[in-house]
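Hello,

I think I submitted the FE2/S2 (inorganic) cluster job twice by accident. Can you confirm which output corresponds to this input? Input:
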Amino acid sequence: MTEGYGAISRRDVLKTSAAGAAIAGSLGPGNVAMAQGQADAPPHAAVTLKVNGESTRLELDTRTTLLDALREHVKLTGTKKGCDHGQCGACTVIVNGRRINSCLTLAVMHEGDEVTTIEGLGSPDNLHPMQAAFVEHDGYQCGYCTPGQICSAVAVLEEIRAGVPSHVTADVSKPSPMTTTEMRERMSGNICRCGAYSNIAEAMAQVAGVKA
Amino acid sequence: MKFDTPAGTNPIDRMKVVGQPTTRIDGPLKVGGHAPYAYEHQELPGKPAYGYVVGSAVAKGTIRSMDTSRAERAPGVVAVVTHRNAGKIAKGNFNTAMLLGGPKIQHYHQAIAVVVAETFEQARSAAALIDVDYARDRGAFDLAAAKVDAPDATGSDAPTAVGDFAGAFAAAPVQIDQTYTTPDQSHAMMEPHATIAAWEGDKLTVWSANQMVAWGAGDLARTLQIPPENVRLISPYVGGGFGGKLFLRSDVIMASLGAKAAKRPVKVALPRPFMGNNTTHRPATIQRIRLGATQDGTLTAIGHESWSGDLEGGGPESATQQTKLLYAGANRMTALRLAVLDLPEGNAMRAPGEAPGLMALEMAVDELAEKLGMDPVKLRVINDTQVDPEKPERPFSQRNLVRCLEEGAERFGWARRKAPGQVQEGRWLIGMGVAAAFRNNLNMKSGARVRLSPSGQVTVETDMTDIGTGTYTIMAQTAAEMMGVPLAKVTVKLGDSSFPVSAGSGGQWGANSSTAGLYAACVKLREAIVAKLGFGPGEATFENGQVHVGNRVADIASAAKGGEIVVEDSIEFGDLGKKFQQSTFGAHFVEVAVDRYTGEARVRRMLAVCAAGRILNPTAARSQVIGAMTMGVGGALMEELAVDKRFGFFVNHDLAGYEVPVHADIPHQEVVFLDEADDKVSPMKAKGVGELGLCGVGAAVANAIYNATGVRVRDYPITLDKHLDKLGEVV
Amino acid sequence: MRPFTYERAKSAQDAAVKAATTPGARFIAGGTNLLDLMKLEIETPTHLIDVNGLGMDRIEPIDGGGLRIGALVRNTDLAADARVRKDYGVLTRALVAGASGQLRNKATTAGNLLQRTRCPYFYDVNMPCNKRKPGSGCAAIGGFSRQLGVIGTSDACIATHPSDMAVAMRVLDASVETIRPDGTTRAIPIADFHTLPGQTPHVETALEKGEMIISVALPKPRGGTHIYRKVRDRASYAFALVSVAAVIGKDGKGAVALGGVAPKPWRVEGADALLPNGSKAVADRLFAGAAPREDNAFKLTLAQRTIAAVLAEAKA
Ligand SMILES: Cc1cc2nc3c(=O)[nH]c(=O)nc-3n(C[C@H](O)[C@H](O)[C@H](O)COP(=O)(O)OP(=O)(O)OC[C@H]3O[C@@H](n4cnc5c(N)ncnc54)[C@H](O)[C@@H]3O)c2cc1C
Ligand code: SF4
Ligand code: FES
Ligand code: FES
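Support: Only one job matched these inputs. Its output is below.
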């Protein structure tokens, strides 16, 4: 959607790390690169991520989080950085079918992993049912927590169906019921300061086919 | 367009598009992850570098020396900017403290350096290599201690008095004299303050998260001492602000200075743990309220004093504001007192003044009702006023507080409420509470440009922002209504200082003022279309993409056949706001459950009934209100920036330490809007709701807790430790 | 965050050897605590040893009863395991009361035990903190200590251990199984795993250099009602002010451990025996010698009342 720098980003990713090119070039996944004596080459490693179905090979400073890899290197900025410390949920993505906070995991630890971001769930003209339900129920305001909320919401319904217990499950030896009480508890790792919670619960209930 | 007489009938009154519950036109972009926020813009004039801001480690003092050499030598570092090499920096009109500190330090985590590097990781680790030696000064950090000799605030915040408050209070048969406290609070919007800055020659462009584009651009020029015309600020999507992004903040300055030094675009986002002390907050208050009444509940004396603190040169939290206007009563006084504190800068947060003010006042009213043995809804109803109690010659433009209270009581099942401590379900003590909501309506001059293309597309351009308020959608609705076109025929472009200056988003003035500005521009466009078509005099009707004058009809697009029509206008407000007191009203009803063992309070039901003029988009307006109610629950139950009075800073400065409500804290919320249209406020006949929704919520929760437990807690937030030992023995 | 090199361990012993011999080396499991702290340079490893993918993500029965939980089992999977839900309900309940769904999907058994305190001064590198910087002092004493410990603390540090899971493991008498660089293994009773601060608050566990957790063993199920009650200001996604893990039999006898009050899961065996006597007796025994601060003294009342709530629930 934008011209200019964004358009050449993919090639530039490799150039960005060119400072460490000699080292990076020889790297396989998960290997160590020591930056001995090279002030300009912090350790890099190669990683291949499967983002929204597309394989992407990146040479990254080992310190790069999955969140920053997605936002700054793959240029998928739908995944948000709200706190960078696991305290808000804005960075939620689905990795190998499970939702996680992408800010508290290193990109290099995800060799070969399937990462689904908000952009992979649906597109503006072909929305995922959860995305459409958020629009219909006004499950957002500023929109900044929204991608994380939606990725979480999709995963939460799966978790309930899969029988993962929660803090509000009355009897943990039995499967949890599909209720908005369960949804509210499980969504609590996604903070919305705009306070769209009541509407998000309604959007989720609609997608789950239960009463709000 | 000047708005100085009450609005007559106008095209908005058709309410074919305006007033309809409309899903957001920017919705698909937001839920798809494609709406670009400040840090995410890709259309830059070069490859960006990353800036990481360093904050002061002391609250007050002087930087004795600063060693940046290790940072400068660190891998990937392009530039390090501090007060030593930043050039001349001034203070913006809207800031109290300098955005770049040094050598003088005014508050903890005041920005003192930005490290620019090739990557974010490099910038962050190099930032930790800056060594600073401080001379620490003693500061004042304790409001309770500083309160003692805090002087009266001045100007529009000066004390007010009507009648003989002292005499009337002393003579009142029923009295309340209590002190309430509210803590420092943090906006904690989800998008951190963030900016990308790029210089092209001496022209500076910043993509930033800002509620008030013109203020921000102006203060950016002022701070950097460059001509305002050299600055462009772009802010199309703002990830929440709540007042925290009203003003220029350090991210903008540090990105701009970093970009200048690095000679390329620089991206800066404030790290979350930095925001609590680097940016602004809502100041704590200590409030004394005295109410005097006769046995029948008539208020005879109303006194409200509030103490707050701020840095030298700052302002008070105007917590007495609503007390001047909310209830009748012949004898009244208010006073704001301002102490100098060396904590970070206090400033506006959603409903500044009224939010903490009502937390206290509406608890005091609840206490009075109990003392009188009167229903708190009834007490509020009998003390209603239709005129400004300080200046009875000024009527309210429209005031339906009583209907809000009565309709709310009916819907909520208020009649089922019992005496304090009477309802128990298992381990839960159940209670209901009510509070009035009140927030003044403010209007601001607002401009817009409208274009009509040969294809009939209407494009709106204004520097107005959408901070989650639904601006994109209500602007499109307004243009569609005015021009008689479907929503799809309207494109809205916001948040760019190259567009006409708008009201911006603050003080809940945004929706009414900015749509009114657009109304003015659309009136001009209608005239231009009629003129272009040569449809002589006569009343023009715009509908279905066509314009009718008498029996002449044409597609509006045909007027632009020869080229786009572009018009611009703004709305300016005359003295109707002086002649009529313009305010918004509501009533909040809350049911809580308090764990009898642990004292944990959880909200079970919430209802707000609002009277706020015409509701431009009930869907978005309802969201504003439920969001505000959620913030109100936070203020009542958990939100507090904890002050370390030795080191002088807010200790819990991240989102794990500063707790805000999560999903599990918030039940289903009901919102009702009374059907109103206020012709004294603007041609849109609308007022704001975004702050109204917060006003009174805290007190309604507090009153519900009291009703559940019979224990009154007057210090917010009402955490379990404050009533635990009064909840009765458990074994 | 300082630069670091990264490698994937090939085996548990390989990891232990590397950890002992590579300067500045640390294990990384879920990363949810370590990376949080590395971003703030509270932790500054220069080499990370990724211990995921060593097959330590299984939950297996132990001969003669009990369960062995791999060090890399995710908190979500442990909570959802049918055997745990049935026989060790207190553990499931404690796990799901902790952090958020996203974090539990990453957090591991070993990482959860080894997470560090949430003391706000520990988290602010401008502040003195003996745990973060030995000898620098303790900013929390005399400061904002509402969250911090009331017992087991010292004049050098009053931090609490933030884990919920560990409190349940303490009541279940779990043991932590490790491997050392020389290949030897040992089982550390959970009671001895976390250490009290004394004058060395930076030392937090009994682990030796390079020693790696490979599993946690739960003894045979303890019959009775399993309860985990966590008290906090907001309803979810918050650390405990006080938490109580308890397993209580029909006869009113059982075991109880507390979170949020001490530098380690707090259990006093002598207090267990007092359970039939009610919450006051139990709390008095648990908190004998407590050293509360002005703003966390409420934890003593809160603990007693929460134990009362748990006893009432067990009876119901
Ligand atoms: C916002 C937030 C809220 C939270 N709330 C809660 C809560 O309410 N309750 C709660 O209990 N927890 C809570 N947590 C903490 C969370 O549970 C821990 O972060 C998590 O359990 C750590 O596990 P990990 O596998 O990610 O550990 P890592 O971060 O990978 O490692 C932690 C430590 O363990 C070491 N380590 C890892 N594996 C091994 C091993 N096999 N042998 C030896 N050493 C090892 C690492 O070197 C490191 O020092 C919260 C965290 C966050 C960020
Ligand atoms: S209580 Fe412990 S962790 Fe907290 S500041 Fe003191 S020494 Fe550091
Ligand atoms: S950005 Fe990852 S949890 Fe906040
Ligand atoms: S929509 Fe703004 S934070 Fe959730």
